[in-house]
Amino acid sequence: MAIFLTKESKVIVQGMTGSEGQKHTKRMLASGTTIVGGVNPRKAGTTVDFDGTEVPVFGGVKEAMEKTGADVTVIFVPPKFAKDAVVEAIDAGIGLAVVITEGIAVHDTAYFWDYACQKGNKTRIVGPNCPGLITPGQSNAGIIPSDITKPGRIGLVSKSGTLTYQMMYELRDIGFSTCVGIGGDPVIGTTHIDALKAFEADPDTDLIVMIGEIGGDAEERAADFIKENVTKPVVGYVAGFTAPEGKTMGHAGAIVSGSSGTAQAKKEALEAAGVKVGKTPSETARLARERLSA
Question: Is the pTM of this model over 0.90?
Answer without folding.
Answer: yes
